[in-house]
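hey can u check if this looks right to u? its 60 residues, i copy pasted from the old doc so theres a chance i mangled smth
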Amino acid sequence: MIEREVSGFLASPHDALKHFIKKKPDKTDRLIFNCMAQLLCLNVRQNLLCIVLSLSRMLD
């Protein structure tokens, strides 16, 4: 169940957030959501780093 929620969140964070708010989250849901949000932030940071490195290589 958690894997499905995480993959759904990464595929569509906006829809997952709307579902999460409607659901009246309990403590476990909040913990899962925090973990998913951190995964997403990490993924975004990694992608930005890759973009910056690619651009710097192109400019050299």
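The chain has one domain: 2-59.
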